Structures are given as C-alpha cells and as structure tokens.
Amino acid sequence: MAILKIARMGHPVLRRVADPVADPTAPEIRRLVADMIDTLEDIGGAGLAAPQVHVPLRVVIFRVRADRLTGDAEDVALPMQALVNPVIEPLGDETMLRWEGCLSVPGLRGAVPRWRRLRYTGTDLDGRPVDRTVSGYHAGLVQHEFDHLDGILYPARMTDFSLFGFNEEMAKYPPDMETRP
Fold first, then answer.
1. CA pair distance 124, 121, nearest whole angstrom
2. Alpha-carbon gap, residue 178 to 21, rounded angstroms
3. Which CATH superfamily is domain 12-172 in?
4. Is 145 a catalytic residue?
5. What are the domain boundaries of the chain?
6. Tens digit of pLDDT for each residue in 64-103?
7. Residues annotated within a binding site for Fe cation
8. Full-prediction pTM beyond 0.85?
9. Which of 28, 41, 145, 178 is catalytic?
C-alpha cells in the first residue's frame, strides 16, 4: 500500500462536492481505502476523507477511540470504519461545542458547534448497508469527516474565532469555552 499526500486548505479538491461512488465494492475503492488507512496510521489521525488525499469521491474512514468518548449512551467506540456515499441526519436540535483539528488545516484547532446526536447511513466495502445512531464524540467526528465530502472545512463551521488558533498557543493559553455564548 501507499502513504498518500494530504491536500491542505486552499486546494480546489477540498472546496468541491465529492462525486458519488458507483460501485462501493470495486477493487479501486478497496485500494483507495487501504492507502487511506496507511496514510491515517502514519499520521496518527482519527479520520480521513478521500478529498483530503486528492480523490474527489464520497469515501471516508474513521475510528472512534474509547478514550475520546463523552459518556453519552450512543457515543460508542469503533475500530477503523470505511463508509462509501455516507449521509447524515441530525436527530434533534441540541448541539455541542467541540475542539477540532484537521490534517488539511495543519497546526491549528478551533471550537466547532456540532449536532450532539445523529444518524448516519452509507455502504461498507462489501456493499452492505451501514445505519448507526450515535452521539457525543462519535457524532462530532463523523460530521467533521462527512463535511469534507461537501467541500467544507471546520473553520467554515466556527461561530467564535476567538476559539481558533495554533495548537501550541492554545495549549499554553487555553480559552474557556464554558464562558462563551
């Protein structure tokens, strides 16, 4: 397999809506996912969307680590997942503010409002349907990765840019999200 180059903010592949995949079981989709997994393992991230590796297709991979869970009943850990042509449906109006970074926006992080609870559907690499209802960290991670498929990077979702900065500075001088409107 291969380690792929990550597209950075400003590249046109990150600004466009990704194309649907006609056949989720196609060998080229399996190869793409294998290379995306190698790339993610090399970098140590939580998720990756195909547009981030210069492939404008509706494919994402992600894993939900147990140490990141919020304690919400539907915030569940999962090993590495690959989803093709995923769709999100928010369940309710409740949102949460969560810190996010992105491999395509290196060195920065910001607080992003995300739906607390949602349902996502898609297809796995064997053509089987995937249908999950999740909340908390799991829901936020899924929203972040799925946004890449619609040409949206997390800074576009931010509502308070005083909660945006370089990782090193934010670690030294952490803002208090609890006091924000």
1. 10
2. 41
3. Peptide deformylase (3.90.45.10)
4. yes
5. 12-172
6. 999 999 999 999 999 999 999 999 999 999 999 999 999 9
7. 102, 144, 148
8. yes
9. 145
